[in-house]
Amino acid sequence: MTKLFIRNIRVSSINLYKNYTTITKPATSLKINDKEFVTDDYTNITPKILSYLNRDLHLKKDNPISIVRQRIVNYFYSSFTHGGNPIFSVYDNLSPVVTTKQNFDDLLIPEDHPSRTKSDCYYVNRKTLLRAHMTAHQSELLRSGLDNFLMIGDVYRRDEIDSTHFPVFHQVDAVRSQRKEQLFQEHSGLELFEPMFDSKNPHMFENSINDPNKQSCHSLEATKLMETQLKTHLIGLVHALFGDNVKHRWVDAYFPFTHPSWELEIFYENNWLEVLGCGIVRNEILANAGPNNTIAYAFGLGLERIAMALYKIPDIRLMWSEDSGFVSQFQNKKLNEKITYKAVSSYPQCTNDISFWLPSDVTIDTFTNNDFYDLVRDVGGDIIEQVKLKDKFVHPKTKKHSLCYSIIYRHLERTLTQAEVNKVHKEIEKAIVKAFNVVIR
Ligand code: DAH
Questions:
Q1: Can you give the pLDDT at residue 76?
Q2: N or C: which end of the chain has fewer CB within 10 A?
Q3: Higher confidence at residue 327 or residue 434?
Q4: Closest Cα to atom 6, ligand 1: which residue?
């Protein structure tokens, strides 16, 4: 299925997004930001997705994403100083095109981890993808000698389509590392590592994560002190963003690159909202990248989710809006000013269903939903508000498999007519017949 979809994109002769990509016929390479990449059977990046590169909402003055970025950066700049200077450095201009080594291997993400699949990521080719998280830059920045840093940028994940999911979003990811003398300023004599661990030869020791409290190489004192600092710093951040009265809770979590790991949730507008993931960086990552005498914590958070909650923005697509009705509500504000987004007007939705028979070699369980969602978005563009699987059906006699999806169309800035929706819907039908070899019912 996926292959057919890719072939469909690769043979088309388009030169839509100057500066970003040129796909020529027959496409064996892809140009992204003036760099040429060889394509292969893993290539699943679409022209639509490439059009989001370089939009840099996180750096766009007055965009809600950028306002939240600035507030987070300010919190770290002002809370952590040495001799009056901020100790955190900020990287917000790193290329989103990364290697599988950066995005997965360096972070100890296993070879068979589901987050690596083609149906979850936008691959440029087998070895290259659009970063799926900002943590992808952690190892290279550690390797370059940095100890305290924030990485901020756009990340790309294949996902369902609804008011809170968009294939491109923005994250802040961070590392704070400390040497023994820094961590134990007030308790000299304590050690970062267990006595049997030789930090000069870290590879001689199998660092296990079986103990829920700590990695086997770390001392309990170091881990607990780091945990306390991590939690205090992150609650401080949440208070700076949402106010001192916001309720929070810590939830145990698992990430391949940290141990122990947690998620922080806040009680906001009557719901528990997950705001970030964090933990103590696996020592293998630090040792492979260079520093063998530090312990570090790391965390990552999504900017859209925070901006949507803070400013009551009901639809994630609005972040991309250039409409003055949206943009003006965030202009000329003080950084910490309370802003409550008011819908300019809510234009009506239009729902059309699409049902089709799958080809005989595909079943309702093997059909890749994310391929379908990407194609719908490619053809329909930003008027696609949501795509929902409505029905699965296996014909009792012919044993043919069929799927039905509802596509909800809505323009953010005007009313769509049924006639124009029908036209786009027909285009989508044509495109899926071609891409997936299905028969419209
Ligand atoms: N990279 C994770 C994600 O995208 C979030 C995260 C969790 C980042 C823990 C971290 C971390 O740096 O320590 O879901």
A1: 97
A2: C
A3: 434
A4: 300
Residues 305 and 371 in one domain: no
pLDDT higher than 60, residue 162: yes
Omega within 30 of 0 (cis) for the link into 26: yes
Q: Whose CA is nearest to atom 5 of ligand 1?
A: 300
Inside any domain, residue 156: yes
d(CA 215, CA 261): 11
Structural element, H or E, at residue 38: strand 35-38
Pocket of ligand 1 (CB under 6 A): 133, 135, 173, 255, 258, 277-279, 298-300
**415: containing domain:** 350-440
Q: What is the pLDDT of residues 422-435, one digit of tens each?
A: 999 999 999 999 99
* Per-residue model confidence as pLDDT tens digits over 376-419: 999 999 899 888 899 999 999 999 999 999 999 989 888 999 99
Between CA 171 and CA 167 the distance in angstroms is: 13
Residue with CA nearest ligand 1 atom 2: 300
- Which H or E run includes 376? helix 369-380
Clarify whether residues 292 and 367 are in a common domain.
Answer: no
**How many structural domains does the chain have?**
2
Any idea what the CATH number is for the domain that residue 409 is in? 3.30.70.380
Q: Closest ligand 1 atom to the C-alpha of 277?
A: 7
Q: Please tell me the distance between residue 88's alpha carbon and the centre of ligand 1 in angstroms.
A: 18
pLDDT value of position 5: 24
Whether residue 160 contacts residue 78, with contact meaning beta carbons closer than 8 Å, is answered with no
- pLDDT for 187 equals 83
In a domain, 170, yes or no: yes
Q: Which of the 8 DSSP states describes residue 71?
A: H
Instruction: Tell me the best of 255, 261, 283 to mutate to test the pocket of ligand 1, counting ligand atoms within 8 Å of each CB and taking the most.
Output: 255
Q: 283 and 354: one domain?
A: no
